[in-house]
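In these records, each integer encodes one residue's backbone shape. Here is one protein:

___
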Amino acid sequence: MLDDFFTRALIAGIGLALVTGPLGCFVVWRRMAYFGDTMAHSALLGVALSLVMQINLMIGVFLVAALASLALLFLEKRGALSTDALLGILSHSTLALGLVMVAFMTWVRVDLMGFLFGDILAVSKLDIALIYGGGAAVLVLLVALWRPLLAATVNTDIAQAEGLNPERSRFVFMLLMAAVIAIAMKLVGILLITALLIIPAATARRFADGPETMAVLAALIGAASVVAGLAGSLEFDTPSGPSIVVAALLFFVLSLAPSPLAKTPDRVTEDRP
């Protein structure tokens, strides 16, 4: 069964969606969409450094994204600039540094379009193993962090008073984001990872009556987007990664229509003020 490229793409994409759905819920709740962009843009610098140092691409991307998270936390504590300004600096500077490094590496043929937009149809059996193995580890850690992350999302001061250490939880969450971006880069590409994190979660938010329900719905909507996007890509001969994101967008647009299934968000699933 895994000898068919389309079947491998489906299995890999669904596995990724099962991880990005729950993780994306926290991205939406905590208003971290721009942070997701920053982490994704830093991936190209990770690719360039991996090629220079001759290490595994996933490891290089993860290390650079983790360093970008540390840099953000350090600069935030300095208080020199607002968080969104720092994210803008980190996002565009890491992307530009990656592009410049790749341009200097004339001895290496780099498929920039593949890194930017992904190629899920080229996924291998080893990639599937990494996606499901790494994804399972991310989900286990996310479940372990669920209570402190949720408490800090609602009110950081209360979470601190209860001894839940929201700063540590936030840093671990950033590392989980870095891991998912490293896993997802080959499938949907650097520029589309954030969309796969945010759009299914934003769609699920309208129909969820609690945070756990929203996480499950986001995973299912993400998986449905993968199936619909790949089917559309096969039918209309369109790029696979962007087709998946377009399918997710269509689900989001459909979710805006009046429906008896729509819920009134509670204070947890509402965006923080």
